[in-house]
Protein: Ribosome-recycling factor
Organism: Paracoccus liaowanqingii
Amino acid sequence: MAEDIDIDTDDLERRMKGAMDSLRGEFASLRTGRAAASMLDPVQVDAYGQMTPINQLGTVNVPESRMVTINIWDKAMVGKVEKAIRESGLGINPQLNGTIIMLPIPELNEERRRELTKVAAQYAESARVSIRNVRRDGMDQVKKGKSNGMPEDDQKLYETEIQSLTDRMIAAVDEALTAKQAEIMQV
């Protein structure tokens, strides 16, 4: 009976890496004073009866370091895309030129930089919580194994492996946060 009990640490690691990937995506959407197409990823537009990402409504380009352009394919969507960008909280004022929306990226002031570092810290804390939830799931599996006759040595081994994996992932989150905060505060 005890041989049938196995904790899938690869699955736990995959789920923790998923939290890291999500964090990287959230960090990519934070504006750092330089233009990036990914900064528009969180913006959704009410198009054709459903919420749609901007990159599915037009071509997003970064022609220079302080400018993003969006060439909207359907002329009827231009106003909706412009409105979604204005209401997104990105702090960008879109300019229209036919079906092209230009987004000049203003220089970040000190106060806005501090706000963005706080937002980055919130994203990182959310990722840490997700990683800890995966750890808890793994530890619950070990406890179930214990009640089903898993040898004590195996329990300790799995607990140590799960904790080590958690510590590595939390350290990776902290490292990514430090790098992102340094990037945001860079003038």
